[in-house]
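User: Could you walk me through two proteins back to back? I'd like the raw sequence and the C-alpha cells for each, with a short line separating them so I can tell where one ends and the next begins.

Assistant: Of course. Protein one, sequence then structure:
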Amino acid sequence: MRYVLGIDLGTSATKTVLFDEKGTIIASASQEYEMQQPYNGWAEQNPDDWYAAAINTIKSVVEKSGVNNEDIVSLGISGQMHGLTMLDESCNVLRSAILWCDQRTGKECEELTEKVGRESLIKKTANPALTGFTASKILWVKNNEPEIFEKCRHILLPKDYLRFRLTGDFATEVSDASGMQLLNVPERRWSPVMIEAVGIKEEYLPKVYESPEITGYINEDAAAKTGLSTKTAVVGGAGDNAAAAVGMGVVEEGKAFTTIGTSGVVFAHTDSPVIDPAGRVHTFCCAVPGAWHVMGVTQGAGLSMQWFKNNFCYEEKQEAEKQGKDVYQLTDAMAAEIKIGCDKLLYLPYLMGERTPHLDPDCRGVFFGLSAIHTKAHFIRAILEGVTYSLYDCLLVLKEMNISPKAMLLCGGGARSKIWKGMICDTFDMPVETSKSAEAPALGVAILAAVGAEIYPDVKTACSVMVETDDNSTKPNAENTKEYHAYHSVYSSVYPALKDNYKALASL
C-alpha cells in the first residue's frame, strides 16, 4: 500500500493528514499559532511558526501511523492564499508575512490601478487590484519599508515558503499564484506587466507548476526532523479553496461548494476563464490542469463567530469544558432557540473589510436593529445569519455570470453546525450536502500528490476513488427561504447606506 500526505497550512493552525491510496485517513495532527494585528486592519504571522507546525505535525503523523517512511510516496501542501513572505539573498525571512486578510494596502491598490489600468488589470489577472492580494503588499513594502524591499530576493506564498524549507526548491503552482495578482490567469504564467508594475524582477518569483506536478523532494534536513524519506515527492499543491474543491470532488463544470472557515467562500468550477467585468468575484486557475474556478469571498465568516466567542462567551466556554463539548455546540443550541430574523437584528460581517460584492477595505462590522429585547443568543444567531447573507451575495454574483449550480457542497469548520447548514440551504434555496471528509483541503492536496506519484492518471480519476460525500442531503424549506430572503433584502440595503460613513471613519 502506498500513502500520501496532505498538509493544510491555515491561518490559525497547520494540520497534517496521512491518507492511504483509497482516501482513508491513517493519522492526523495539528498545531495552532498566533496571528498578530499590530494596527487596526493589519494581519501578520511569523513564517517560522508555519515551519515549526509542519515539522511537528508531520513527525507526529509519521510516528503515530507506524507506516514505513518509504511507503509515503508523495505529499501536497494546501495554503492560506495571498500572504507575502520575503527572503533576502541568503534566504532569511526579512519581515513578518503580511496575510490575506490584511487591509493596509488601499493606496497601493489605487497605485496599481493607475499604473496598469482597471480594464487591463482584470484582463491580465482576471481580478481588480485588491488589498488582500500579494502585489499590493509588495508595493506597500516598497513604499513604506524601502530598506527591506531593497534586500528582497525571493517572494513566496505561505505554502511555498514551507515547500522551500522542506525541499530547498523555489516553486509555486497556478491556483495559489493566481491570487498574487502577478500571474496572467488566462495564460497560466507570470505577467511581465504586473511584475514591472510592482518593481521587482521575475527571478524573485518561484517557478510556476500545475498543481499535481512534482516540484521537488524532501531534503535531508527535513527528512531528519520529520521521519520522512528523501524519496518522498512534493507536488505543486494548491491554494486552500482550490485544494478543498479537489477534496470534495468539485473538479468539473456545474459543481460548486461553500466553505465556512476563517473566511467564507462560494466556489464554482469552470472549464474556461469566466471573468466578472466588475471584479466582484475572483477568477483563478484551479488545481485541475487546464481549468479555472470562480469564487466569491466574505472575509469574516468563521472569524465572526470566533471573535464573538473569544470576547463574549466566557460562561459558555466554561460550561462547554465542564460538559466535555465544543463551545460551538452550546452557541448553536442558543441560536436555535431564536426565530429567523433574530427579532429584527441584523449583522454585517465586515470585521476585516469585505471583498464580494463590495470590494471595500474600509467597511467594518455592524449590528443593525438592536433593541432592549435582544439577548446574547440573538447576537449569536444574527452572526450566523449575517455570514449566510454575505455568502448568498457571492452566489448571486455567480448567477449573474450564468454560473448556476443546482446543489451545494459544504465544508470548513462551519459545516459541522447543523443550524448553519440549514440557514445556507434555505437561503441559497438549493440542496446542501456536506463532504464526508472533514479534511477537504488536506485530502485535496493528498489527491494531487497521488496523481503526481502516478497512483492515478489524473485528478478526476483520483477523486472518483478517494472522495466520498455525505448521503444526508438537506433540502430547502420554502417558508424559511421566503423569510430569509425578506431579511436579506434589508441586509443588502445597509451597506450602501453606510458606505460614505465607512470612508469618513477610516479617514479619522
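----
Protein two, same layout:
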Amino acid sequence: MTDASIPKTMKTWTIHTEGDRMEVAMAEAPIPEPGPNQVLVKVHAASLNRGEFIAGHGLHKPGSPPKPVGMEVSGEVVQHGPGVPGYKVGDKVMGRCAGAFSGYAVMSGREVIRMPPHLSWEEAAAAPLAFMTAHDMVIGQGKLKKDEWMLVTGISAGVGVAALQLAKAIGAKVIGTSGSAEKLMKLKALGLDVGIHTRAADFCDAVMKATDGHGADLALNNVGGTVFAECIKALAFEGRMAIVGYVDNVLEAKIDIQALHMKRLQLFGVSNKLRTAEQKATSVTAFIADVLPHLEDGSIRPFVDKIFEFGDLPAAKAYMEGNRHMGKIVLRGPA
C-alpha cells in the first residue's frame, strides 16, 4: 500500500466513563501519522482486554473526554517513520498499541513483533498482551519450573488460558478453578491437569489433595480479594503468588502473616500501569525469546473464543462482561 492509497480518515471506537460503567462509541478520526521509530499498521484484528473496560481499574478518569480504545493488534505495515529497522511496507505484524479498535493504528518500533505466518489475524491479535502478562507471572517473576504445580483462579480468562499454555510448554502441572464445569472440560484439551469447579474460596483442600499435600508452587490470582486468603493457604513452602486481576472488585484482603513468614512466601503484582515505555519494552524482548518460538512451531496456539465484526464492539464487550467466553475475544478490523 502506498502513501497515496492510505485514506485520510478512519472509523475508530472510543471509550468514556458513565457512572460506574465504561461506554464505547464509534467515531470518525484522521489517520494517525507515524513518527520516529513508529509504524502505521492497517488493522486486521484487535482483541479485548477486560481491564480496559473496568471503571475501577483507573485507566479512564470520570469526566474525561472519550479516548480511543483497544490495546493490541495484528495488521499490515503500510507506512513507517524514520528509525524503524527491520520492517517494511507489507510486513505482517502484531503487538501492543493504543487505539487498536480502529482502521489504522500507530505502533512503537519497540512493540512490533513479526507475525508467525501460520497464525490467523485473529490468533495473532490474541497473543501479545495475554502472553506477555503470562510470561511475567509464570517465568519472569513466578520462576515456574518443570514439574512444579501452578494454581490459576479464574483460569478460563484470556490470561489464565495463556498461562496454562505457557506452563505446559515448560513442563509444569496446572490446577485451575472456574465456575463453569464445561470450560474446565475444554481446558483439559490444552493440558489442564486438575480442574476445580468453584467460584468460592474453598479450593485449598482440593489443591492439597491433587498435590499430595505439597501445595501450589505458584498461584495466579486472577479473581481478586475474595480468594486471596485461600490462595495463601494453598501455597507450598517457598510458594509464590501473582496478583493480576480483581474481577470480583474486592481490593482488600487479610494476610496470614504467620503463613507468609513460616512458608517463606513471595507475593508480587503484575501490571503495566506505572511502568515506563522502556520497562514495557523488556516484556516484548522476553516474549520474543520465550514465547514466540512456541507460536512459530505450533506448540502454542492462541485460544480465540469468539470473533466479532468491527461494528459489533458493544456486543463483544457485553459478551465479555457476561463471563461467557474462554480465552480471548477478538474484533475484526473494518472492511
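Residues 277-290 form the longest helix (14 residues).

Let me know if you want the two compared in more detail.
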